[in-house]
From TrEMBL:
GO MF term set: catalytic activity; molybdenum ion binding; pyridoxal phosphate binding
Listed InterPro entries: MoCF_Sase_C, MOSC_domain, Pyrv_Knase-like_insert_dom_sf
Source taxon at top rank: Bacteria
PANTHER family, per database record: METAL-SULFUR CLUSTER BIOSYNTHESIS PROTEINS YUAD-RELATED, MOSC DOMAIN-CONTAINING PROTEIN
Name of this protein: MOSC domain-containing protein
Source taxonomy: Bacteria, Pseudomonadati, Pseudomonadota, Alphaproteobacteria, Hyphomicrobiales
Ranges for domain MOSC: 18-168
């Protein structure tokens, strides 16, 4: 299956959900133009409170559309942008990618995967029980965070629904994704 962008979203405020857009513009080293998380240093409020000088490894939030499908099947009313993601895509096992993977969009924009999104209590405020639904366990009992991945912007460009996505794995040995 061809990997494809199904939706793009952004918000200038620190709202939980982000409205869908026709196009977003990724700015190298900064993130999504006009988004509250744009910048070289961390913008997520909980991280700013700890250390506002930390590098922003969470410039772009990406979720797999398959998660929305799973959540709808479980009875949740969730669609693109609702969980705060900037890019929703289908056809890539995002959670299985190694750190340092590059995702190249049809426009030439490139992001580099930095790690996993750690869902916070706001997700349950959005819809009761959603936190539990985006967390799972593997065969060994290890926690699986299903709420997407985070990335930084390496090369600027526009991203829109329908754009193809190419995956470029980093050199081996691969590092598994950790929470950023």
């Amino acid at each position: 299956m061809q990997a494809i962008v199904t939706a793009v979203s952004s918000s200038a405020s620190h709202s939980f959900s982000k409205p869908n857009r026709d196009v977003i513009r990724l700015l190298a080293g900064l993130g999504v133009e006009g988004d509250a998380h744009l910048g070289t240093t961390v913008k997520h409020r909980s991280r700013v409170a700890k250390d506002p000088s930390q590098p922003n490894l969470r410039q772009v939030h990406v979720i797999h559309a398959e998660l929305h499908d799973e959540l709808r099947e479980a009875g949740f009313d969730v669609s693109a942008g609702d969980l705060g993601e900037n890019v929703t895509m289908r056809g890539i096992d995002l959670l299985g990618l190694p750190a340092g993977t590059r995702l190249r969009f049809g426009s030439g924009a490139v992001i580099e995967v930095t790690g996993l999104r750690n869902p916070c209590i706001q997700i349950d405020r959005f819809q009761k029980g959603l936190m539990k639904a985006v967390l799972g366990k593997d065969e060994q009992g290890n926690l699986i965070r299903k709420s997407g991945i985070m990335a930084i912007v390496l090369e600027a460009g526009e991203v829109r629904p329908g754009d193809a996505v190419q995956v470029e794995l980093p050199p081996a040995p691969h590092r598994p994704l950790e929470v950023v």
